Amino acid sequence: MTASISIGTDGAGNPVLVDVEELLATRLLVQGNSGSGKSHLLRRLLEESAPLVQQVVIDPEGDFVTLADEYGHVVIDAGDYNEREIGKMATRIREHRASVVLSLESLELEAQMKCAATFLSTLFDAPRDHWYPALVVVDEAQMFAPVAAGDVSDEARRLSLAAMTNLMCRGRKRGLAGVIATQRLAKLAKNVAAEASNFLMGRTFLDIDMARAADLLGMERRQAEQIRDLERGRFLALGPAICRRPVAVRIGSVKTSTRGGTHKLMPPPAAATGDMQELLFAQVEEDMALPAPPPRPEPAPLPAEEVMRALAAAPSAKPAEPEFDMGESDGVIVAVLEEIVADLGEALPGLSTLYQDFTVRCRMKGLKRAPIDLPAFRKRFAMALAGMTDAADPRWENALRAAAPLPEDMLAPFLLIARAAMQGLPCPDDAKLARAYGTSSPGRVRRLIDYMERQGVIVARTDFGGRRSIGVPQLGLSTAAAEG
């Protein structure tokens, strides 16, 4: 088996070879403006070298996930995992020598940078026994090693740039060969670009990028003008793994493609103007014709004094209040609690006010006295806030048992989480947890979650997409992921 692969042909039709073993030692930089064929070149390189060496692809746009169909790469959608899980996967990738594509397309730019930093740093920090050779391909490298922070935080840039610098400067001894591709050399950190010894330069138009390319290729600025005239799919190649003098290469064909394929000209559908207007505007006009329903006002709790006056003014000839046993009164408790929760606004009244409202409503439904005391009401009201109004329902027993280590004021938010986990619902957001906790402070909600996690009653995880899910170990269940 040869260690050389063909990436295309030169002007005379002769194959241009890349020595993969030499590439592992000397690294590669690919540059080309959008539309120059840069991604096609990377795909050709990956396809040809797939049988020879382990490959790890950092893919910000999800372009290379189709390699899995033909070559068995494992696709990791970074948006589905948190930082700890990404790190564990990177450790196993080095241990088992798996070829993978880390797809970052579901993440925002800053989350992409942090995820890539975690992933690359873990690859770099692998135990010495796992220092197997691997091509690490990073597309759109200017995103992960930018000259300036731009719209992202300094922390994200620092972490990502440090990981990319380690890959290109110190990765060789650990078996990691960086192959980085960028649209703009001027936007790529110089200490990262300068570590590559092999170059494939595609079409670029800006003088500052051509000047950087000429410096890297060892060409005079006047000679670098030819870079502007390169056709799509043609690159100037130079480096110990390719050739000792610059040579123009036409990149060869590939077996796989992006999920969307190549965009080609497509005429618009033939339709009469009137028909197209009807298709575009019919539903819009229909929606505009329907007036928006007025917002439903939040019912305010009835003041206790007004209720008491209403009771005092009631006709004296009404039937005597019946006596209920606890079995019958439990249905009244459930009904009253549901009414109270339905009438609540955004801010919760104090517990004593709620209990007074509860006792009045119970009397209005025929109970002579409150069927439960204040501590029992606190528990039942917490259950009602979480949608667990019926305490006799055996489904809630395990959730209540799991809440035993928590203070009473944390029962409502915990039960809200537990109910979501039991029913497979999305994780309650901070606003819902804050309301159940009787606060409007996001900081208190974060401290609440941290405290419950330290007590071992929940396990919270947040993926790189910012979606949170919370597991309840004692139930063996977890909520669905949702925006926190």
TrEMBL record:
Pfam families: DUF87. SUPFAM superfamilies: P-loop containing nucleoside triphosphate hydrolases (SSF52540). Residues 24-214 form the AAA+ ATPase domain. Transmembrane segments: none annotated. This is AAA+ ATPase domain-containing protein. The lineage of its organism: Bacteria, Pseudomonadati, Pseudomonadota, Alphaproteobacteria, Sphingomonadales.
